[in-house]
């Protein structure tokens, strides 16, 4: 029990440090991406914090899987490097005795990964899609940030406003450049506001401004002043209800979804906790390292295994999504093969007669030292 408590504390400490690093990288990456979209006018600047939180929540299952895998691997590798495992094996204890404390640390991580994959991540994706779609369905003038030029959705108008009056749709010092079959028209006004017609159509009403039509210096060039000028922005009422994507469907709706996209998304959600459990167990036999050698190779191999595993899961998901394979024959074979690999590695490490076993390495090291002493003895 003392050994298990000490081992769990060490793994928890390693998990905290690893999670902090990975989470910081994820938040920084997401911050740069969301700020870039906000600067490009694809999302509202007021939604940046919420979109960062939703995107980070989407990455949490992957972060937890990698955190648990690296934490167990680091603890096992340190035990080999400090020759604690040699003493462990010399005391007659098996490598399988590590399974219980590793699972007591890893099972909460597996359950948390499953909860995030099945519940939290779909909710975050749904809310993120709603924020983006709601901004895309706003009127062209409401998307304009003060001091920036903005192209309309139909690509035939360019808006510029100098300021916004309060929290309403009223904007001040408006510039509108319109290109249509009649040529180019430029409109400047002191203020503008969005009005809704009887049938749901939207109009931009400009007040106290001027309209320039045509090319200056030509005979068809026209100039007029107006107190109120209306132009249609949209022709029908827009529905703000966003369509649910497959990856944003709740788990109960996804279980009843028999489409290829629904089955592929269910496969991905099942794979997250299964991957977390298998990688935690794989870290125990994979953590072997020669005490006289460096331990960085294990971490590189672990990262390659993690990314390879994730990519293969994505390939299987794409195969189900494209209808090339069925869900019933696709969600389990990869994890069964990975579990068999874990079993094979445990069997390999438990083979005391193998030349790469720690006890065999220790015996070989002692024999080489003894032979060196005999060689120098007169």
TrEMBL record:
One of its GO terms (cellular component) is ATP-binding cassette (ABC) transporter complex. Its main location: membrane. It is found in: Cell inner membrane. It holds the Pfam family LptF_LptG. GO terms for biological process: lipopolysaccharide transport; transmembrane transport. The chain crosses the membrane at residues 12-36, 48-78, 266-289, 295-316, 328-348. Coiled coil: none annotated. It comes from the Bacteria. It is a multi-pass membrane protein. Keywords: Cell inner membrane, Cell membrane, Membrane, Transmembrane, Transmembrane helix, Transport. This is Lipopolysaccharide export system permease protein LptF. It comes from Duganella violaceipulchra.
């Amino acid at each position: 029990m003392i050994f298990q408590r000490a081992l769990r504390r060490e793994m928890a400490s390693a998990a905290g440090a690893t999670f902090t690093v990975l989470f910081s990288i994820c938040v920084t990456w997401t911050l740069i991406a969301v700020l870039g979209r906000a600067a490009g006018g694809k999302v509202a600047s007021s939604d940046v914090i919420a979109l960062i939180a939703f995107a980070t929540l989407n990455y949490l299952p992957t972060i937890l899987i990698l955190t648990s895998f690296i934490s167990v691997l680091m603890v096992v590798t340190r035990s080999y490097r400090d020759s604690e495992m040699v003493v462990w094996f010399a005391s007659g204890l098996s490598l399988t005795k590590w399974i219980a404390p590793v699972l007591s640390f890893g099972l909460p991580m597996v359950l948390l990964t499953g909860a995030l994959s099945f519940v939290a991540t779909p909710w975050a994706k749904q809310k993120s899609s709603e924020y983006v779609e709601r901004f895309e369905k706003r009127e062209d003038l409401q998307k304009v940030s003060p001091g920036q030029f903005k192209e309309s959705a139909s690509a035939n108008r360019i808006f510029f406003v100098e300021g916004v009056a309060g929290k309403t749709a009223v904007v001040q010092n408006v510039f509108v450049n319109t290109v249509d079959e009649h040529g180019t028209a430029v409109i400047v006004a002191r203020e503008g506001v969005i009005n809704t017609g009887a049938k749901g159509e939207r109009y931009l009403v400009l007040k106290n401004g001027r309209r320039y039509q045509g090319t200056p210096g030509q005979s068809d060039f026209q100039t007029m002043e107006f107190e109120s000028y209306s132009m249609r922005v949209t022709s029908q009422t827009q529905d703000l209800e966003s369509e649910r994507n497959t990856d944003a469907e709740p788990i109960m709706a996804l279980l009843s979804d028999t489409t290829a996209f629904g089955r592929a998304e269910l496969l991905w959600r099942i794979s997250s906790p299964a991957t977390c459990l298998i990688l935690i167990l794989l870290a125990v036999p994979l953590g072997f390292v020669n005490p006289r050698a460096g331990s960085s190779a294990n971490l590189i191999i672990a990262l390659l295994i993690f990314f390879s595993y994730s990519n293969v899961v994505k390939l299987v998901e794409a195969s189900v999504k494209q209808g090339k394979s069925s869900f019933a024959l696709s969600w389990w074979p990869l994890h069964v093969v990975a579990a068999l690999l874990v079993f094979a590695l445990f069997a390999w490490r438990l083979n005391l007669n193998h030349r790469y076993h720690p006890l065999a390495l220790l015996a070989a090291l002692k024999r080489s030292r003894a032979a060196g002493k005999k060689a120098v003895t007169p």
